[in-house]
Task: structure prediction
Amino acid sequence: MNTLDVRTLNCLKGLVLDGVDSAQSGHPGGALGAMDFAYLLFTEALRFDPKNSHWLGRDRFILSAGHMSMLQYSLLRGIGWLESEDLAQFRQLHSRTPGHPENGITPGVECTTGPLGQGCGMSVGFAVAASHLAATLDPELFGYTIWTLLGDGCMQECITLASASFAGHQKLSNLVWFYDKNRKQIAGDIDRAYSDDEAKVFAGFGWETLAINGHDHDAIRKALAYARSPRKKPLLIIGDTTIAKGAYSLEDSHHSHGAPFSKDERTRTREKLGLPESERFYWPADVSQHFQRNFSLREKEAYAWQEKLQTRCKDADFQTRYSTYFPKSGVTPVVAPLQWDRTQELATRQAFGKILEHWARTVPNFVGGSADLDPSNMTEGFAKIVGDFTPANRAGRNIAFGVREFPMSAISNGIALHGGLIPFDATFLSFADYSRPALRLGAIQKVCVIHEFSHDSFHLGEDGPTHQPVEHVMSLRAIPDLYVMRPADPHETEIMCTVALQLQAPSCICVTRQKVPHLPHSAELASKGAWIVQRAEKEVELLFFATGSEVGLALETAAWVAAQGWVSKGSIQVVSVPCWEIFFAQDKEYQAEIFQWSCTKRVSIEAGSTLGWERFAGNGLLIGLDHFGASAPASVLAKEYGFTPQAVGARIQERFYAAC
Result:
């Protein structure tokens, strides 16, 4: 091994030790063990512009084993995108070196990782996006590689395997995973819980595999060269490594995984690595120069790429298409509204399907698909218009995710993070639980992904309690920065979808199986997240709040209650609340107009958990479903659970008009 390679490698390991020691928390073992591969990748194979971390033509590096963040931060220090002061602030408030990598905070970090395996799922999304853009724009401009470093924990997570299955089926040859196989995790050796033969498993998935000594630089270089060669399948490099490689006494010990080294262990390890104990975050000039030995080549590659892009943009057709995928900052798609036949009732899932078909023709960078529920999610029309994304048709925009809800949403996050495309995915609302970890990570990263969740209540009917969502809408509302939308009719569905298309955040569109009536609308007001569907003509005496199919029920109930003579129709107000998150972002004056807190007779109606509706109804009447459903026709269940105008009206009388 080259002497300067050894010296540079040891200095990188020293940065890891010092960062973890400075924070007195972190995961040093894996970072030390995987450093040989990562060092050679960053200095000899990874294509990036040292002067511009956002260069579009760069390779992407994703650290799925996000607990090894100091490995990445040390490499970014080598590039010059981080300083020693940043490493000294590891895991501190408002630093550029948080405990797990977070995109938008640290230059060179493509996505937020930490929950094991999700980086693998997102890397597949990056690979899908790059291959689609290569097919629709230019194969050379978008012919870069997606590199992912994963560990033993990632390999044990189901999302990794399901994402790998999808990637192998799609023959994503631009995807390379390096598996840092050190056989250690927090609780001990992995053989206590894991004995898979990854080479056989991934070969079965349709991957190429290489097994190497993860500390042998010649073997690593050969693997990197092969990874860069033309291939027809994704590649898994299985690196046999030793955790905490180079440590004084913790080498090959699981105790090095998740805790700082003791003072004595750190001192002796630094001595073993030839690092001066007196200088923390030691990064001398000769090491920096050696780390950056190929920077002039990297800069030439970036310059040549930019020149090619400028040449291609001289073609008007290419320029138009490129500008669609990569518009100027702040520009979002503007789509002409649909015209709805208000005489025909329509399920909001059907409305969503019509919107997808409209966008298929008008939003060229809109991509996505369903988790094998195309006829139920109403994505079939979209698929017929745009074609499936396949190895033979990378230009296709419909993605057949298969029954892989969690990977589907993680892949969608990766597509959005890559840039250039706006993704959607679709399944039943009751299966949102499968996607939930990816929904949460998407919300943390504020990615624009539209998640369609159909069959949004007990009105699903005969499929029974396993498929009838009860707690799901409210549980999704509990995720910060996730916009949960439950529109009441086709027009409101379109309004919510249009808002979702323009958000810098993920959204969930929860839509009905059953048909619903059309409502009178003001697009401007519906886009505020809550609006008055039926306005009281005088002081409000009875106030309804509802979402989705229950807005129609609220209007029917209001008419029934007025017919009983308990309250005049002119004193009843009905509010549709399609999106709490948007509504609570409105100014206080608008919120006050909606809330009407002077009215004490308040009713909320939603076919799901009542938890949280106190925010609107206060101490009023909360109508919902705080128990699981049953297998029966929807009309039968509506009567059984009291979701009829007469049943809701009877509860209103009991609560507010008992004397009548």
